[in-house]
C-alpha cells in the first residue's frame, strides 16, 4: 500500500462540507470567512481517506481519483468556475456590499448568495448523480467515461471532488461493491488511454532481424497480412520444424479460409460458440510475435476490437524472469503494467480483458495442469505458474480471453479441453515471397535476378516460406551482389549461412572496430566470439533451449557483459531481449542460425582436437594426414539424425555436411585455422548416405538425406531419375528403394503444384507407392488404379488420410487386391477428423459385404468429408447394401454420389436403399444401380421412394438391369411427380421396347417433369417408339437437353419425324445420340434441315457407326454451313466416309459462321489427301476446330 493511501492526517471528511449523511454524527460545520485572510487556510481538502479501514477492505483509494491528469490528485474541493451566468449579477453586488455595506445588508446579500449557491450545488449534484446512476447500470459500457473533451480543468476538478464525496457516502452506507464499481468505471477510461499510449510506443516499431541496437521500422509500414487458418496438425507438432516448413511450403498457396488477426476471437464463419482461449501455432520465425504485436497495436490505435477495455501482452521470456516470485493476478498485472497500478484498478470482472501470452515454447515455468491447486481470487498470491494454470483453466478470471502463441512442439503443454480454438500461422506464399524481395530491392533487374536465383535452389525457396529467412537471404544477396559484380550467388543453405556470418563480422569490424572494408575480418577477438556462440548454440540445442539466461551463459563461460557485447555487435546473429522488467534474455534470431553455429562448433572442434562431440562418451579420433577421419564424424551424425523420431537433427546434419566442402571452408578462411576435408572424405560420406537410402527408411528421412547430398553437391541419383523420366523408361523399370526416394525428392522439389499424381506414370508397384507417400500426401488427386496394391498399401494410405498436412481429396484405388481387410484399415484414416477425402473409388477391389460395415461407419462419422463413393464391380450382395444403408441414413452422412454397379443387388437390396433415399437428412444426388437385378418390382419400390418430397436424388442409373415395359409405368409416375428432383435417367440396355417408351413418354410430357437427360440406348426402340417421344420433346414444359437413342432401330423415317420435332421452337434438345441405328444417307437430309433451322438448339450430334457414306456427309454439310447452325461437336466415326466426304467437310469447317469445336472421323477412309485437306482447313483463321480425330486416335488440329 502506498504512503498516500495510508496518510496519518486524513483531514476533514466530506460530510463537513455537505451536512449530515447516513454515517456517524457530523462534525461542527466549519465557518466560511469570505473577507478574512484566515479563509486561506480553511479550504476543504480530501487528501486522506475518511475511513481508512473501509479503504483497506475495498482495495482502492477513497480520495485520490484522477479523471484526467495527476494535477487533480489531492486537490482542494474547488468551485472556481462559479455558480454560472445566472449568479454573476448577485456576485458583483455582493462584492460591493461586503466592502462597505451595513450589517443587515451584508446578511441579506449573504443569504441571497447562499440560496443561489445551494441551487447551483444541488443542480450540479443531481446531474452528476444521474450520470453516475447511468454509469452503474449493467448494460453501460465500462470505459465510456474515459473522456469529456469539452470540459475544462476547473469543471473536471469539481466533478472529481464530487466523485470522492459520493464514494465516501456510498461506503458509509455500506455499499462497498457499488462504490468499487463506480470508482473502477470512472477511472478505467483514463487508465485505458494511458495503457494504449504505452503499448503504442512499445509496438509501433519493430526490429527486422535486429536488436535494439539496430534501426527500427514502423510495424504498420512493413507488416504483410499473415495467413491464419483454424486447426493444427497434431501429428506434425512433434516433427522437426524443417519438415513442417517443407510441407507447409507445398500447401501455402492452396485455398483455406483465412482468419483476420483482429477476428481471432470471433472464429471462422458459422461458428457460434464463445471463444475464450485461442492457441496459435507456427514454426520459429513464421511471424507469431509480430502478429500479436500488430493485434495489440491495432487496438491501441483504436483500429480494432474497441469493445475490449484492456489488452495485456506478456511474453513467456518476461514471465520466466519472475518465476521465483509470488504475485496475485492483480499484482502480476500491476508489476508489468504500471498504468493499471497507478489507476489502482484491482478488479477486472467489470472489464472486457484480453491476456496475450507469446512464446509458450520458451516457457520455463512448470505447467502441471493436474497437480496444481485451484485459485479463483484475483487478489490471492501464488507463484506465476499457478496463476497461469488457473487463468488458462478458467478458474481465475473466467471472463477474460486468452491468446497463447507457441511453436508446434510445445503446443501439447496446454490440455485440449482448456483451448476453444487452435489456429496455425502459415508462412509466405510464393507470390508473397516475390512481393517481399521486390519491396526490398527497388531495382527491377536486381530483384528479378534474386527471385530467379531463389527459385532455382529448392532448399532456399522452401526456407523463404519463413519471413525471417527472407530477410537473411536479402541481406546476404545484397552484400554479395555489391562485392562481386556478376559473381556466383550462394545456392545451398550452408553457403547462405556462411555468407550471413561473414557479412555480420564485417559489419562489426567496420562499425565498431574502426576497420576498413578491405581489412581481414577474422581477428582473434571475433574468432573467440564465434567459438563462444557456437558452444552456446550446441549446448543449448542439445537441451532444446532457444532462449538463454545468465546461468546458461555462465555454463559456456560467457558473462553478461560479454553477451551484451555480442548482442550489440552481432545484432543479426544474437539478439538481446529486454522485457518490461529490463532483465536480459538472449536468443539467436532464428533456430536455423543456432543449428548452423552448433554444426560449425562440432565441425571446428573435431578438426582442431579430434573430439567427436556427438559421441555420448566423447572420444578423440587420431587424425592422420594420409587417412582423414572426418567421414567418421559424418557417419555418426547421419546415424543420429536417422534415429531421431521427429527429425530434430535434420537441418543440423545438412549444415555439418555442407561445412566439409572445401569451397565452403574457403569462405571461412581465418576462422577455420585448418581444413579437415578432401574429395575422398566427401565421397565416402556420399557413399554412406546412398547405402542408407537403399535401406527401408521412412520417406521423410530419405528426403532429408537427399537434401544432404545436395549440400555435398552430389545430384547423381536425382539426375538418373530425370533421365529415366525423359526417356520414358521409368514406367517400365522396377525402381530400387534409393531410386524411389530420389523420385519422391524430385517430384516434391518440382515447382509445379501436385494437383494430380498418377503412379502408373512412374512405377506401378506397391514398393514405389510406399516410397512416394509424401508425394501422395502433397497431391490433391492420387490415381493408383491397377497398381498391384494390397492391404499393406491400405495401412500406409490410411496414415496419409489421417494426417492434417495431407492435401488429398480424391483417391482412386480401383482394380487392386485390397480385399475387406484393406478397406477396414483404410476406414481408420477415413474416419479421422483430419481426413479431407471427398471422392473414393474402390471399383473391382475384391470386396464383400464385410467391407460395407466399415464403410457404413465412415459414412455416419460426423468428421467424414466423403461425398462420392464408387463400390462398383464388388461382390457386396443385398446383405452388404443393407449394412451400407445404415450409414446412408445417418444424419451425419454427406454422400452425394454412390455407385453400386455390378454388385449383385436384387429387389431385396433395393428395398434397403429405399429408406436411405427417403431420409430427410439424405444428401444423395446420384445413384448407380446398373448391371444388377432389381427387377421391375424393385424399380417400382425405388420409384416411389424417389417421388418422396424428402428425396433429393437427381441422377438414377439403371442400365442393364433386365427391366421390361412394366418398369416404365412406375418411372413415368416418378417423372410426372411434382416432388421429384430427377434430372438424369439412364435406362440403356433394357428390354423396354416401344410399349415401354410409350408409357415413359406420358411422364416426359407432364408439366412437372424436370428430366434433362434420358438414355434409351439399346432398348429395342423402333420408329413407333420414336413417334411417342416426338410429342414429349415438342412439349412446351419439356426440360430435356440430352437424348440417347443409340443402338435402336428408329429407321430413316423415325429420324425424320424426330428431326421435325427438334426443329420445333419449344424443343430444348441440345445433344442427340443416334449411334449404331442403321441410318442411311436419307436421314442426313432431315438432320441437315435441323442444323440449318434457326430455332434448333442442337450443339452435339453423334451419328457414329451408321452407313451414311460420302453422299450422306455431303447432305449434312449443307446444314453445317448454314449461318444458323449451332453445332459444336459431331461424331461420324465408322460412317464409311472417304476422301470425297472429307472434301465436303472442309468447306463446312472453314465457314466463318461455324461453331464446330470437335470432329470425330475415326474408323473411316479419308486417305492421305483427305487428311491433308482437313489439316489445311484447320489452319484457316475462320476454323474454330479444337479436336480432330482420324484413323484410330485423336489428332491435334495443328499437328501438335
TrEMBL record:
Q: Which PROSITE patterns match?
A: LRR (PS51450), NACHT (PS50837)
- Organism equals Salarias fasciatus
* PANTHER family per the UniProt record, alphabetical: NACHT, LRR AND CARD DOMAINS-CONTAINING
Query: Which molecular function terms from Gene Ontology are attached?
Result: ATP binding
The cellular location(s) given in this protein's UniProt record come to: Cytoplasm
Q: Which UniProt keywords apply?
A: ATP-binding, Cytoplasm, Leucine-rich repeat, Nucleotide-binding, Repeat
- Region listing for Disordered, in residue ranges: 1-104, 139-158
Q: Which residues form the NACHT domain?
A: 276-410
**SUPFAM superfamilies xrefs:** RNI-like
Record's GO cellular component, any one?
cytoplasm
NAD in keyword set? no
- Main location per UniProt? cytoplasm
Q: Where is the composition biased (Low complexity)?
A: 49-63
Which protein is depicted? Answer: NACHT domain-containing protein
**InterPro entries on file:** Leu-rich_rpt (IPR001611), Leu-rich_rpt_Cys-con_subtyp (IPR006553), LRR_dom_sf (IPR032675), NACHT-assoc (IPR029495), NACHT_NTPase (IPR007111), NLR (IPR051261), NLRP_HD2 (IPR041267), NOD1/2_WH (IPR041075)
Give yes or no: UniProt keyword Cell cycle: no
In the record, what lineage is assigned to the organism producing the protein? Eukaryota, Metazoa, Chordata, Craniata, Vertebrata
Amino acid at each position: 500500500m502506498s504512503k498516500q493511501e495510508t496518510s496519518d492526517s486524513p483531514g476533514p471528511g466530506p460530510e463537513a462540507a455537505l451536512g449530515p449523511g447516513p454515517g456517524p454524527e457530523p462534525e461542527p460545520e466549519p465557518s466560511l470567512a469570505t473577507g478574512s485572510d484566515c479563509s486561506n487556510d480553511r479550504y476543504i481538502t480530501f487528501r486522506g481517506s475518511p475511513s481508512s479501514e473501509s479503504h483497506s477492505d475495498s482495495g482502492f483509494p477513497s480520495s485520490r481519483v484522477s479523471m484526467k491528469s495527476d494535477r487533480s490528485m489531492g486537490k482542494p474541493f474547488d468551485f472556481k468556475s462559479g455558480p454560472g451566468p445566472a449568479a454573476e449579477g448577485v456576485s458583483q453586488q455582493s462584492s460591493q456590499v461586503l466592502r462597505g455595506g451595513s450589517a443587515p445588508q451584508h446578511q441579506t446579500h449573504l443569504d441571497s448568495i447562499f440560496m443561489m449557491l445551494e441551487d447551483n450545488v444541488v443542480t450540479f449534484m443531481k446531474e452528476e448523480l444521474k450520470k453516475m446512476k447511468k454509469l452503474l447500470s449493467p448494460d453501460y459500457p465500462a470505459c465510456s467515461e474515459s473522456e469529456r473533451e469539452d470540459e475544462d480543468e476547473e469543471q473536471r476538478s469539481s466533478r472529481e471532488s464530487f466523485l470522492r464525496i459520493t464514494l465516501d457516502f456510498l461506503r458509509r452506507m455500506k455499499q462497498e461493491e457499488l462504490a468499487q464499481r463506480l470508482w473502477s468505471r470512472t477511472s478505467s477510461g483514463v487508465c485505458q488511454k494511458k495503457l494504449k499510449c504505452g503499448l503504442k510506443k512499445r509496438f509501433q516499431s519493430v526490429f527486422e532481424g535486429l536488436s535494439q541496437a539496430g534501426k527500427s521500422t514502423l510495424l504498420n509500414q512493413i507488416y504483410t497480412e499473415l495467413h491464419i487458418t483454424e486447426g493444427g496438425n497434431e501429428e506434425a507438432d512433434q516433427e522437426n520444424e524443417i519438415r513442417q516448413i517443407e510441407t507447409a511450403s507445398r500447401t501455402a498457396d492452396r485455398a483455406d479460409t483465412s482468419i483476420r488477426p483482429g477476428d481471432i476471437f470471433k472464429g471462422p464463419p458459422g461458428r457460434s460458440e464463445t471463444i475464450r482461449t485461442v492457441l496459435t501455432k507456427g514454426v520459429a520465425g513464421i511471424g507469431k510475435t509480430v502478429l500479436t504485436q500488430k493485434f495489440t497495436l491495432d487496438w491501441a490505435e483504436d483500429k480494432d476490437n474497441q469493445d475490449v477495455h484492456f489488452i495485456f501482452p506478456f511474453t513467456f521470456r518476461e514471465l520466466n524472469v519472475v518465476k521465483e516470485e509470488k504475485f496475485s493476478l492483480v499484482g502480476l498485472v500491476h508489476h508489468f503494467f504500471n498504468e493499471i497500478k497507478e489507476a489502482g484498478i484491482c478488479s477486472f470482472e467489470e472489464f472486457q480483458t484480453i491476456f496475450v501470452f507469446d512464446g509458450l515454447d520458451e516457457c520455463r515455468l512448470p505447467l502441471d495442469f493436474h497437480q496444481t491447486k485451484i485459485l479463483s481470487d484475483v487478489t490471492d498470491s501464488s507463484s506465476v505458474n499457478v496463476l497461469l494454470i488457473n487463468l488458462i483453466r478458467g478458474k481465475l478470471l473466467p471472463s477474460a480471453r486468452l491468446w497463447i502463441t507457441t511453436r508446434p512442439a510445445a503446443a501439447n503443454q496446454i490440455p485440449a479441453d482448456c483451448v476453444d480454438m487452435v489456429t496455425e500461422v502459415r508462412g509466405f506464399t510464393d507470390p508473397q515471397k516475390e512481393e517481399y524481395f521486390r519491396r526490398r530491392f527497388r531495382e527491377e533487374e536486381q530483384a528479378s535476378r534474386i527471385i530467379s536465383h531463389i527459385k532455382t535452389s529448392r532448399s532456399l525457396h522452401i526456407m523463404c516460406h519463413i519471413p525471417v529467412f527472407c530477410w537473411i537471404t536479402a541481406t546476404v544477396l545484397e552484400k554479395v551482389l555489391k562485392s562481386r559484380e556478376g559473381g556466383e550467388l550462394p545456392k545451398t543453405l550452408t553457403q547462405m549461412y556462411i555468407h550471413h556470418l561473414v557479412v555480420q563480422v564485417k559489419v562489426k569490424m567496420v562499425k565498431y572496430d574502426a576497420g576498413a572494408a578491405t581489412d581481414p575480418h577474422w581477428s582473434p577477438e571475433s574468432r573467440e566470439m564465434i567459438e563462444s556462440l557456437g558452444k552456446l548454440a550446441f549446448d543449448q540445442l542439445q537441451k532444446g533451449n532457444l532462449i538463454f539466461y545468465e546461468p546458461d551463459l555462465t555454463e559456456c563461460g560467457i558473462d553478461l557483459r560479454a553477451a551484451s557485447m555480442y548482442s550489440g555487435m552481432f545484432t543479426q546473429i544474437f539478439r538481446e531481449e529486454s522485457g518490461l522488467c529490463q532483465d536480459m534474455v538472449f536468443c539467436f534470431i532464428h533456430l536455423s542460425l543456432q543449428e548452423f553455429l552448433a554444426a560449425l562448433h562440432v565441425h571446428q572442434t573435431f578438426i582442431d582436437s579430434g573430439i567427436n562431440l556427438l559421441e555420448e562418451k566423447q572420444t578423440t579420433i587420431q587424425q592422420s594426414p594420409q587417412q582423414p577421419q572426418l567421414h567418421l564424424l559424418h557417419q555418426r551424425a547421419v546415424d543420429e539424425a536417422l534415429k531421431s523420431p521427429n527429425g530434430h537433427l535434420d537441418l543440423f546434419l545438412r549444415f555439418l555436411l555442407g561445412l566439409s566442402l572445401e569451397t565452403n571452408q574457403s569462405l571461412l578462411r581465418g576462422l577455420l585455422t585448418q581444413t579437415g576435408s578432401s574429395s575422398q572424405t566427401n565421397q565416402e560420406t556420399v557413399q554412406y548416405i546412398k547405402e542408407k537410402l537403399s535401406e527401408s527408411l521412412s520417406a521423410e528421412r530419405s528426403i532429408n538425406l537427399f537434401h544432404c547430398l545436395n549440400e555435398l553437391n552430389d545430384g547423381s541419383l536425382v539426375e538418373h531419375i530425370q533421365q529415366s523420366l525423359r526417356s520414358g523408361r521409368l514406367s517400365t523399370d522396377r525402381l530400387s528403394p534409393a531410386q524411389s526416394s530420389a523420385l519422391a525428392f524430385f517430384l516434391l522439389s518440382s515447382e509445379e503444384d501436385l494437383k494430380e499424381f498418377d503412379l502408373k506414370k512412374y512405377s506401378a508397384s506397391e514398393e514405389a507407392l510406399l516410397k512416394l507417400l509424401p508425394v501422395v500426401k502433397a497431391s490433391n488427386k492420387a490415381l493408383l488404379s491397377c497398381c498391384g496394391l494390397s492391404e499393406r498399401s491400405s495401412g500406409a494410405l490410411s496414415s496419409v488420410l489421417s494426417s492434417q498436412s495431407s492435401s488429398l481429396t480424391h483417391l482412386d484405388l480401383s482394380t487392386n487386391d485390397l480385399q475387406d481387410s484393406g478397406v477396414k484399415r483404410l476406414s481408420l484414416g477415413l474416419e479421422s477428423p483430419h481426413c479431407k477425402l471427398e471422392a473414393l473409388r474402390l471399383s473391382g477391389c475384391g470386396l464383400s459385404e464385410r467391407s460395407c460395415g466399415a464403410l457404413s461407419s465412415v459414412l455416419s462419422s460426423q468428421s467424414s468429408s466423403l461425398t462420392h463413393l464408387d463400390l462398383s464391380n464388388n461382390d457386396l450382395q443385398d446383405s452388404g447394401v443393407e449394412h451400407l444403408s445404415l450409414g446412408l441414413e445417418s444424419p451425419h452422412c454427406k454422400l452425394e454420389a454412390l455407385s453400386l454397379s455390378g454388385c449383385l443387388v436384387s429387389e431385396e437390396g433395393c428395398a434397403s436403399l429405399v429408406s436411405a433415399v427417403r431420409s430427410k437428412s439424405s444428401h444423395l444426388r446420384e445413384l448407380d444401380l446398373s448391371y444388377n437385378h432389381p427387377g421391375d418390382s424393385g424399380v417400382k419400390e425405388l420409384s416411389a421412394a424417389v417421388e418422396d418430397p424428402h428425396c433429393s436424388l437427381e441422377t438414377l442409373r439403371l442400365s442393364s438391369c433386365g427391366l421390361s415395359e412394366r418398369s416404365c409405368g412406375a418411372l413415368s409416375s416418378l417423372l410426372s411427380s411434382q416432388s421429384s428432383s430427377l434430372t438424369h435417367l439412364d435406362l440403356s440396355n433394357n428390354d423396354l421396347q416401344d410399349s415401354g417408351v410409350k408409357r415413359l413418354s406420358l411422364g416426359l410430357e407432364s408439366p412437372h417433369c424436370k428430366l434433362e437427360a434420358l438414355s434409351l440406348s439399346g432398348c429395342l426402340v423402333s420408329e413407333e417408339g420414336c413417334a411417342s417421344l416426338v410429342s414429349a420433346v415438342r412439349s412446351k414444359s419439356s426440360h430435356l437437353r440430352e437424348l440417347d437413342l443409340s443402338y435402336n432401330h428408329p429407321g430413316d423415317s423415325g429420324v425424320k419425324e424426330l428431326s421435325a420435332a427438334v426443329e420445333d421452337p419449344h424443343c430444348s434438345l441440345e445433344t442427340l445420340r443416334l449411334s449404331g441405328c442403321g441410318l442411311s444417307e436419307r436421314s442426313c437430309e432431315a438432320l441437315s434441315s435441323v442444323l440449318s433451322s434457326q430455332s434448333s438448339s442442337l450443339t452435339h450430334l453423334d451419328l457414329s457407326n451408321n452407313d451414311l457414306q460420302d453422299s450422306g456427309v455431303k447432305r449434312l454439310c449443307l446444314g453445317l454451313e448454314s449461318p444458323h447452325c449451332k453445332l459444336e461437336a459431331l461424331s461420324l466415326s465408322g460412317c464409311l466416309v472417304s476422301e470425297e466426304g472429307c472434301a465436303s467437310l472442309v468447306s463446312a469447317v472453314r465457314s466463318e459462321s461455324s461453331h464446330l469445336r470437335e470432329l470425330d472421323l475415326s474408323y473411316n477412309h479419308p486417305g492421305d489427301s483427305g487428311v491433308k485437306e482437313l489439316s489445311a482447313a484447320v489452319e484457316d483463321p475462320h476454323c474454330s476446330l479444337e479436336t480432330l480425330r482420324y484413323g484410330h486416335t485423336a489428332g491435334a488440329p495443328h499437328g501438335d
